[in-house]
Amino acid sequence: MSASSAFLSFLKTLWSGIDGLRKVLHLLILLLVFAILIGIMSSSAPIVPDQAALIIRPQGAIVEELAGDPFDRALGEVLGEADPQTLAQDIVDALDYAQEDERINAVVLELGGMGGIGFSQLERIAAAIDSFAESDKPIIANADFYGQGAYFLASRADEVYMHPDGVLLLRGFGAYQTYFRDAIDKLRVDWNVFRVGTHKSAVEPYTRNSMSDEDKESLSSLLTQLWGFYQGGIVASRELAAGALDAMLADLVDNIHSAGGSFGELALQQGLVDGLLTDNLLRERIVELVGEDPDDEGNYRSTELDVYVADMRLKKGFRSYEENIGLVIASGEILNGSQSPGTVGGETTSQLLRDASKDDSVKAVVLRVDSPGGSIFASRQIQYEVEELRKRGKPVVASMSSSAASGGYWISMAADRIFARDTTITGSIGVFGMYPTFQRSMESLGLRNDGIGTSDWAAMLRPDREMSADAKALFQAQVEYDYDDFITRVSQHREMAKQDVDDIAQGRVWTGSEALKHGLVDEIGGLDDAIAAAAELADLEPDDFGIVHFRQELSPSEQLIIDFLARSRDIGVDFGGLFARRAPVDKLAGIVESALSPLLRFNDPRGIYSHCFCVFR
Fold first, then answer.
1. Which residues have a catalytic role annotated?
2. Residue 479: beta bridge partners?
């Protein structure tokens, strides 16, 4: 055999082996796909045990709407990469279902993983806990470490426990932020600021090194009211002496010494918890109340929040109504253009309102607002769609959650009726603009800008050139026009004298109860009250209408992918290893981005905003 023939024979043998390996791999992949499909088809819906305890274990922030692109978030949840968040509606629904569900004989609030929550959401969930308590089923609260929001909910339970080495530290409320004036000067940046409103403090971090007296006055009043609400709720629930929390904080160091340095003992001494229990002792206590799980010695039968809510919604099924109330959620900063959930996009939210307008089954719309404001351009877009809905004969009711301030109030004010909670942060009717220029920073590096144009305006609003006096005057005029437009619209929609609006505007922030007195809202109430009011305005019979949610949805192909991956995970296929995990530096970058996001995400095309930096912890 010649050398060439031998080489060809070798190649044929090699190719035959590769082709055989390819067929084997194809077969293995096919078998894997079949195994997944069989697992999907054979898997049954989660079953809630008879006589179980419902475990409500919120993770991360409690929100009106899950943040992020729906597909990206769904994929992240399947792969274990999504930032934890919990829908307030899920908790409220679960407690409502469980009240009449004979399978649920107790609720366990595991609150150690709970993150931030707004005051109005605290009120709403606390009210749902109180309503469940009327069923005479026990409510047990537990955590290793209680945040202030988590403890407020825990205080509503029949029994409150924490780990002996845990921490419960109620600190009060504060409003602190970083001020950049010196840093801006050192970087030789000209931070041009324009505003209207004596209390419009959103620009202060860029123009000052400390909080102004006007801002301190406004925030002091607000924080005092919110702390009074918070403290009053705990004192009533735990049957403490009036002012007990203030007294504990006033002598915190002496109190902690008297408790032997233990926060747990301090909480027990102060009557904030009923016992300090390890996990094993806690399980034993709950077994005493609800019985032991026959399949898991030493534990109790239970079902988790997500499983239970999914089960109950499946059992209740989908009933189609001829007449419906549309629900549109506007949660997060108001930004120009199309935005993912967790922010309010001018185009995105407007489209949702148009969808509700075009749906003939929708007879009225509830706009649920939880926003500190943002872009005025985007706010105007959304307000226009609210007005269009009303012109089409569809009433609109605004339901304010924890905040509906500045632009959040702008998009609410055109509604037929406005509902707010006592603790809603609203108002902040004011306008500002910011435009930084960097010509001095560039000059320090030896860079200069020069050129020529057909008019002096050709060089206007270039970040590498100093703003001219005329440019500043034009910008200020626009801000003043927008403020005048804001208070004029409030005057028209709220049927108030313009001067009266101006008197309570000026960027001043109000609680919901104060806003009611000033005529900025119509009633104190929650989402259910707003839905009932919308039905009344549309002449719908109680209990004879449905709720249609208008929101960004997964496409059919995206839903198919997510369902496939989820079912694959359920039968033991781990796709997580195929994707890179977030490195610690990525998490650090996320923290920095979150801190700077109000500045980095400003994208109004005219650079003019109605925004309230009013998130309090």
1. 200, 406
2. none
**How many angstroms separate the Cα of 387 from the Cα of each of 202, 378, 413, 550?**
28, 14, 10, 18
Give the confidence band of 111 by pLDDT, cuts at 50, 70, 90.
very high
Burial of residue 497 (CB within 10 Å: 0-12, 13-18, 19+) is exposed
Domain ranges of the chain: 52-170+272-314, 319-552+583-611
Q: Left (φ > 0), alpha (ψ -120 to 50) or beta: where does 58 sit?
A: beta
One-letter amino acid at 184 equals I
Residues 36-51: what's their mean pLDDT? 61
Give residue-wise pLDDT tens across range 259-313: 999 999 999 999 999 999 999 999 999 998 888 888 888 889 999 999 999 889 8
Hey, what CATH class is 52-170+272-314 in?
Answer: alpha beta
- Contact yes or no for 244/272 (Cβ under 8 A): no
Q: Could you tell me whether strands 396-405 and 362-371 are parallel, antiparallel, or unpaired per DSSP bridges?
A: parallel
52-170+272-314 and 319-552+583-611 in the same fold: yes
For 222-267, what is each residue's pLDDT tens digit? 899 999 999 999 999 999 999 999 999 999 999 999 999 999 999 9
Spatial contact of 133 and 139, defined as CB atoms under 8 Å apart: yes
Fold annotation for 319-552+583-611: 2-enoyl-CoA Hydratase; Chain A, domain 1 (3.90.226)
